[in-house]
């Protein structure tokens, strides 16, 4: 089976590339200069030329704070790009798997969000990702939208690598402790994407299509996540660093973040039989790779 994936250097795209052969997929990555997600014509042409059995929409405009001042660009990439992917998939008669975000919610529910809960993004990033979901759904029903959160991996830029970098030069780190979510390891996400994509290709079962939540198992706030990262680093010979909790008010940012964006993943488990591992175990795997490298 042939899978076309947008992005070449993103965390999920690189994780998909690592696992493609073992998962029975031939992977074609679509990125610049072949495509520009802000240019729908280039997107459709590249997908049609690749002639895949499934499209995975993994690339996005993810600079949450910068999006507040680049709303038009964020919309073109996060809304118009996925819509063009969906159009190309429809022309080829194939399904599309799209990665979305917990930031489509405002974080005020007080318990993990279901797929059926009302959306209410707080900023441009979440709003454009939600618009991308709607754009895909408006084009084709043959889709699976996977909302994930707090993605980390040995690749690219992410919270784990930022904490390790700061710990190499600082004796004390201050981290927000009043924002809650579920850390998700990109290689675990990739394994789930392959499983969902295979089912969409092989069956026409409508229950396997639609919106699903896909995160690591277990809750955390950013302070707890950072503390686990530093503890794991110290256990592997890293510097001893103090991690101190602060509030969101102590660390103002251009974009507002949801205070509690935990996602309920029970629908994914019941429909697709997929549940990601507990995040602490996956973090250990990530730290092993980072320290070995």
CATH level 1 name of the domain at 2-149 and 184-217 and 262-277: Alpha Beta
Tally the helices.
9
Query: Structural class of the secondary structure composition?
Result: alpha/beta
What's the gyration radius in Å? 19 Å
Helix and strand sequence: EHEHEHEHEEHEEEHEEHEHH
Range of helix content: 40-55%
Summarize model confidence as the mean pLDDT.
96
Low-confidence stretches: none
Q: So what's the overall shape?
A: globular
CATH architecture of the domain at 2-149 and 184-217 and 262-277: 3-Layer(aba) Sandwich
The number of strands is 12
CATH topology of the domain at 2-149 and 184-217 and 262-277: Rossmann fold
- How are the strands ordered across the major sheet? 2-1-3-4-5-10
Could you outline the blueprint of secondary structure elements for this entry?
Layout: E1 2-6, H1 11-19, E2 26-30, H2 40-50, E3 54-57, H3 71-92, E4 96-101, H4 124-139, E5 143-148, E6 151-152, H5 159-167, E7 172-176, E8 180-181, E9 184-185, H6 186-202, E10 210-213, E11 220-221, H7 222-235, E12 242-246, H8 266-272, H9 279-292
Parallel strand pairs: 1-2, 1-3, 3-4, 4-5, 5-10, 6-9, 7-12
Antiparallel strand pairs: 8-11
């Amino acid at each position: 089976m042939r899978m076309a994936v947008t992005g070449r250097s993103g965390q999920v795209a690189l994780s998909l590339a690592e696992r493609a052969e073992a998962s029975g997929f031939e992977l074609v990555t679509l990125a610049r200069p072949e495509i520009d997600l802000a240019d729908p014509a280039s997107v459709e042409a590249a997908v049609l030329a690749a002639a895949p059995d499934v499209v995975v929409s993994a690339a996005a405009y993810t600079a949450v704070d910068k999006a507040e001042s680049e709303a038009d660009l964020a919309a073109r990439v996060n809304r118009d790009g996925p819509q063009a992917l969906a159009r190309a998939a429809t022309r080829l008669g194939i399904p599309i798997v799209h990665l979305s975000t917990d930031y489509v919610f405002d974080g005020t529910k007080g318990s993990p969000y279901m797929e059926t809960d009302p959306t209410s993004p707080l900023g441009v990033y979440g709003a454009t990702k939600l618009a991308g979901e709607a754009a895909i759904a408006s084009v084709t029903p043959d889709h699976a939208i996977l909302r994930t959160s707090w993605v980390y991996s040995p690749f690219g830029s992410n919270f784990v690598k930022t904490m390790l970098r700061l710990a190499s030069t600082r004796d004390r780190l201050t981290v927000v402790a009043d924002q809650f979510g579920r850390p998700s390891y990109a290689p675990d996400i990739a394994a789930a994407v392959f499983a969902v994509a295979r089912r969409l290709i092989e069956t026409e079962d409508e229950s396997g299509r639609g919106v699903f939540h896909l995160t690591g198992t277990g809750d955390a706030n950013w302070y707890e996540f950072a503390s686990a990262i530093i503890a794991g680093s110290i256990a592997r010979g890293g510097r001893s660093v103090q991690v101190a909790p602060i509030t969101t008010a102590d660390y103002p940012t251009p974009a507002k973040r949801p205070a509690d964006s935990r996602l309920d993943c029970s629908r994914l488990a019941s429909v697709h039989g997929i549940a990601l591992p507990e995040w602490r175990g996956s973090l250990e795997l990530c730290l092993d790779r980072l320290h070995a490298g």
